[in-house]
Amino acid sequence: MSNPMIQLIVLAAIAVFLILRLRGVLGTRDGFEQPRVEQRQPEQPYDLPDDDVAIPDDDISDHVDPESPAYVALVAMKQVEPSFSLTEFLSGAKQAYEMILVAFERGDLSEVRPFLSDDVAAAFQSAIEARDRSGQTVDVQFLGTRETGLSAAEFDTTTSVAELSVRFLGEMIVATRDAQGNVVEGDPKSPRKQRDTWTFEREMGADDPNWRLVATGA
């Protein structure tokens, strides 16, 4: 059950389903800023012998500087779960980013709830309810994710909990309308770019294959 391919299949299947259905007009809102949930710090830092860090791993070094703390953390993750692939994780994270954004703009988190921590789900739901009360609506067309890259990696060797922060550059068309249908923010014809850094968490080696979104930020 901990095979990373299962993680990707689950994320990809839901992402394709949602994106195909929700490509056009999505949700209502009073602004396009997502609720921010601050990243938690790991309780126990990783501490590996130098010999472990020296083991070459192209899957990691293709994305992370081998001299960085993130590289050390990723090596520690693979020691607990050798089948873990950073390349495959980043591909799945990109699809999850698109899937969750679409669900948030639609105003229905039910289908992405397994991929959200309690704190993130509560923050997103609060924002959805606030924009519903505002009387405004938003037209959103998600055009795609232009950039995806690892920003940071943390690993708690005591709990085997990994946190991977991923930076995204998304492109979308956003237009907020008042109750009369007038555009009060954005442009229904011109795309705009959005930068986000999201942190995903999972216990390495656990039966549950899902990475969960635990923090969002710019």
Please give the structural blueprint.
Elements: H1 4-21, H2 50-54, H3 58-61, H4 69-80, H5 86-106, H6 118-134, E1 137-156, E2 161-177, E3 183-186, E4 192-203, E5 212-217
Antiparallel strand pairs: 1-2, 2-3, 2-4, 4-5
State the helicity in percent bands: 25-40%
CATH architecture annotation name: Roll
Total DSSP E strands:
5
Major sheet description: 5 strands, antiparallel
What would the average pLDDT be, to the nearest integer?
Answer: 80
Structural class: alpha+beta
What can you see in these coordinates?
The protein is α+β, with helices and mostly antiparallel strands and 218 residues long. It has one domain: Roll (Nuclear Transport Factor 2, Chain: A). It is 35% helix and 27% strand. It has helices spanning 4-21, 50-54, 58-61, 69-80, 86-106, 118-134, and strands spanning 137-156, 161-177, 183-186, 192-203, 212-217. Strands 1, 2, 3, 4 and 5 form a five-stranded antiparallel β-sheet that branches. Helix 1 (4-21) runs parallel beside helix 5 (86-106). It is elongated. The protein starts with a helix and ends with a strand. 31% of the residues are buried.
Keywords:
218 residues; alpha+beta; 5-stranded antiparallel beta sheet; 5 strands; 35% helix; 27% strand
Please sum up the structure shown.
This protein is of the alpha+beta class and 218 residues long. The protein has helices at residues 4-21, 50-54, 58-61, 69-80, 86-106, 118-134; strands spanning 137-156, 161-177, 183-186, 192-203, 212-217.
